[in-house]
Amino acid sequence: xxxxxxxxxxxxxxxxxxxxxxxxxxxxxxxxxxxxxxxxxxxxxxxxxxxxxxxxxxxxxxxxxxxxxxxxxxxxxxxxxxxxxxxxxxxxxxxxxxxxxxxxxxxxxxxxxxxxxxxxxxxxxxxxxxxxxxxxxxxxxxxxxxxxxxxxxxxxxxxxxxxxxxxxxxxxxxxxxxxxxxxxxxxxxxxxxxxxxxxxxxxxxxxxxxxxxxxxxxxxxxxxxx
Length: 226
Description:
By secondary structure, the protein is mainly alpha-helical. It has one domain (4-224). The protein has eight helices and no strands. It has helices spanning 4-25, 29-35, 44-64, 69-99, 125-146, 152-181, 193-196, 200-224. The protein is globular. Mean pLDDT is 89; it is low at 110-117. It is found in: Endomembrane system. One of its GO terms (cellular component) is endomembrane system. This is FAR-17a/AIG1-like protein. InterPro entries: ADTRP_AIG1.
């Protein structure tokens, strides 16, 4: 029999995160995102949301089929990527949106989403709850309450490799798509103003810094795991 607490956590997380993505898909922002080369895959929040959702789906599978050791191993590998990524996303997003919102939020002026409304395009709190709070909270809860901590070898070798590889792939993809999007009439040819308004060498530093946050916070989360 699956553990009720784990089953409820995983099921609720899957539902809430799926709802958040559907809200984005049915909003005016969807048109702007899909018009760019790379679409939703340019936005780290959406990438993290997708990985977190997939990890929770695999967690549900482990709850219902606990004897499948291969599924459990695959879930823990996904968790090693999605957990540090979501911690980094939440850390960076909430720090910037509260202190320096203009470097993380899109400007409405000049945008096809809302060209007549000046200022910043703030995300409604209900949507923030689905895409910037639920993933990190549920992944952390799953790891701390229902998973074993990772071994020293996994933390020192596996986690850095997973995080750095993921970060390099994301950065390469975003920069590749930017070579196409910068020729179009978009307010930002990179997914966030912080990236658009800085040269390539600074952007590389930003990618590296976020990757370091991801690995460092994963190391900390594993250290406090009982």
